[in-house]
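User: What would this chain look like folded?
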Amino acid sequence: MLTTRRAVLTVAATAALPAAAQVAVAPEVQAQLAPGGVLRAGINMGNFLLVSGRTPAGEPDGVGPGMARAIAVRLGVPLRFVEYARPGILADAVGTGAWDIGTIADEPQRAAVIAFSPAYVEIQATYLVQPGSAITAMDQVDRPGIRIAVPARAAYDLWLERNIRHATLVRTENIDAAFARFRDEKLEVLAGLRPRLLQDAAKLPGSRILDGRFMAVQQAIGTVKANLAGAAFLRGFVEEAKASGLVARLIAQHGVQGLSVAPPA
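Assistant: Here's the prediction, encoded as structure tokens.
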């Protein structure tokens, strides 16, 4: 469900952010990405790596909100955050007029209705197994009788849905619920982002995170597919943000462990 908190930030309030040199933006880009004169940025509040807290004024803060602020500065418009508890809800709202850009992972299912920029950061997704588990490698997970706890409609859940053939996916409402079912029901595997699984492993002595990854979550900026000029602008902006060091500075500024700057597209 869409939260009621919405925050409008003036361009002046975001001017101190690290951002690339200002260049003129085509009128059709502003018309598509800020049709009401304000950039409405959908934010997935469930991603603790991209949204690491709130500002003193109560707005979302972190690498994802920082990218949205930098885009608003480049467009020369105020910014309004539209908060969502989970990525699937944010994705469902595309085309409803609720948001103009969304900070969300690029996945084929979502790309059917959302035009994505290249990824600006990547996050490793891997598995946690129970204490004493006989599972020691990635290729031992997708087998009959293996139950994998996973938050429903997370980017890595969408990957598992496409790729898991023999194991059973046990979907939950959110990350905390996935860990609770893994622990309490002694499910064989918990799928998640490596930084979060490190926290979960500390709560369950003897549990182990498998080496490697089954995928890397590609965090991108999306807009409705009809926004051709807006989508082209976002593609160029993200590539410039990576090359200029903006993304790396945001990661360092917020002290986030487990994020890496995505390679050039």
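The longest strand covers residues 215-224. If you want, I can go into more detail on any region.
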